[in-house]
Amino acid sequence: MPEYKAPLRDMRFLIDNVFDFHGHYAALGATDASPDMVSAILEEGAKFCENVLSPLNRSGDEEGCHFDNGVVTTPKGFKEAFAQYVEGGWHGVAADPAYGGQGLPQSLGLVLSEMIGSSNTSWGMYPGLTHGAMSAIHAHGTEEQKATFLSKLTAGEWTGTMCLTEAHCGTDLGLIKTRAVPQADGSYAITGSKIFISAGEHDMSANIIHLVLAKLPDAPAGTKGISLFIVPKFHTDSAERNAVHCGSIEHKMGIKASATCVLNFDGAKGFLIGEANKGLNCMFTMMNHARLGTGMQGLCNGEASFQGAIKYANDRLQMRALTGAKAPEKAADPIIVHPDVRRMLLTMKAFNEGNRALTYFTAQLLDTAHLSSDADQRQEAEDLLAFLTPICKAFMTDTGLEVTNHGMQIFGGHGYIREWGMEQLARDARIAPIYEGTNGIQALDLLGRKVLGSQGKLLRGFTRIVHKFCAANADHAQLKGYVVQLNQLNQEWGELTTQVGMAAMKNPDEVGAAAVDYLMYSGYIILAYLWLRMAIAALAHDDTDFAKAKLATCDFYFKRLLPRTATHRAAVEAGSECLMSLPAESFAL
After folding, report:
1. What SS3 state is found at 562?
2. CB 460: neighbour CB atoms within 10 A?
3. Which residues are catalytic?
4. Which of 118, 138, 324, 535 is the most buried (most CB within 10 A)?
5. Among 96, 94, 117, residue whose Cα is nearest residue 41
6. 528 close to 489: Cβ distance less than 8 angstroms
7. Where are the domains of the chain?
8. What CATH number has the domain spanning 158-277?
9. Judging by DSSP bridges, how do beta strands 158-163 and 207-214 pair with one another?
10. Which pLDDT band, with edges at 50, 70 and 90, does 158 fall under?
């Protein structure tokens, strides 16, 4: 298993030189997020992840979670690591001080989450789901509910889940069968089964607070009839066990140390959160948080894979360089001299560092949406977040999976062997394009709801940023050619969107046919913008070697990866006919 080291130099480059976190915090009045505080979080967070979580990654995968008659036990060391995490105050870094949190900006919480996910994706699922539950209760709960649940969740004494999926409906939540029957005391009896519930049962906290989607007896059909309920594992007033039990845990391809549970609710006592029949709106607060976290998992597994691959490529001897021996004193040259290995390593580096920049860019928008006193600024940030969230989730997880596959390939046969750890990273990364809404669903959300549904408003919110950037840097001495390339794609983006919209007016299937390629096309353009921002910052950086590496990777991105937009555009323009003309029965053997 690769030995994870937090990429602090790259993190600081983004924080200090590209996005100016310190000026950003000062503008928002986040005075507690001082440069010293940010530095302490980076340094101490890195130590915890490198020394505590990373050593548990392989052993957790090999041991997995244990299930015994409804009781789930996490792998050796997981519970103790969680206790250490809680004791260190990490769980409440970005939580509301009113409930025991430190009140630091959301962006710092995401920086910490990156290190956690890169060192141990499975372990990171437990606090990650809890943060999502906290955000939903904070946004939609009553004052009594906040007082009852948030302090315990913030302290890490309790953990949280979200319970959406059922065996028969998957993404189509309008079909859920779980029912909530009103009781005389104002509570509800929740009955039904949920599947694929991450961290639904475990031994790491004293209580687990489930946020459960269910329907009231008089609920309208479909998604308009969904309500959201808080269902604790143990009653908060008596500490007696509620009628919710784990029926089984899934035997998974990856993230084996994260308990993925079937939960059975047998008249369990629950409490309505938010308005009746408005549960999906409440749950989206948690789901959007989770989608950003899931997108980061692409980056996290990709970063761990790259760290293993770069070390191996420098150590592994095989053949001679085509231009002559580079290590004549050795039996062969290290494989890093070979162009194809360089291609894979640079692809990994370009996606990881680009996706990290996208994460931090989005994280600043979260800060603005939460902390700005300017209503227009908050709305602009929220609109950009709505646009970027499905791209973060889908683009980062698809490219993260590509990165982990390259990592395995660089190891050759050893990459396929368990003890090197590279195949675990690929297995762990494979779930990310599936859960929290498959990437196909994210693409439909982006193109159908966010772009066409807003008549292009949300897209224009981002393309204006790119346009202003290109105008300001049109005459840049060293980057002018790249700026021209980005500007052309930015204009083309709007034209392609109009083209799809016109086609969809005649045939709605055009949206579904174009969506995935449209999302990936969008992701490549966004990363191009961010890579140019990094290149400009690198040119002013005082570390010459670091700057050269950034500029070389930017050059690789524009010449080798950004051209993929042409393929995605061609697929979008191909339309739906080639997908839909074959009758369904013709697919049968």
Report:
1. coil
2. 18
3. 436
4. 118
5. 94
6. yes
7. 8-155, 158-277, 439-580
8. 2.40.110.20
9. parallel
10. very high
- Count of C-beta atoms within a 10 Å radius of residue 339: 9
- Kindly report, residue by residue over 391-434, the tens digit of the pLDDT: 999 999 999 999 999 999 999 999 999 999 999 999 999 999 99
Token pair, residue 165, equals 């999926």
Is residue 180 within 8 Å of residue 229, measured between CB atoms?
yes
Inter-CA distances, 132 with 117, 139, 249, 323, 461, Å: 15, 11, 21, 53, 27
Gap between the Cα atoms of 186 and 164, Å rounded:
23
**Residue 69 phi, psi (nearest 5):** 50, 50
Based on C-alpha coordinates, what's the Rg of the chain? Answer: 24
**DSSP class of residue 269?**
E
Q: Strands, DSSP E only, in 97-238?
A: 158-163, 179-182, 188-198, 207-214, 227-232
Rounded Cα gap, residues 439 and 515, in angstroms: 10
8-155, superfamily in CATH? Acyl-CoA dehydrogenase/oxidase, N-terminal domain (1.10.540.10)
DSSP one-letter code for 433 = T
Give, for 556, the enclosing helix (H) or strand (E).
Answer: helix 544-556
pLDDT per residue as tens digits for the range 192-209: 999 999 999 999 999 999
Of 415, 400, 413, 398, nearest in space to 308 by CA: 415
Question: What confidence tier does 83 reach under pLDDT thresholds 50, 70, 90?
Answer: very high
User: Exposed, middle or buried by CB within 10 Å (0-12, 13-18, 19+), for 132?
Assistant: buried
Residue 324 phi/psi, 5-degree rounding, is 115, 160
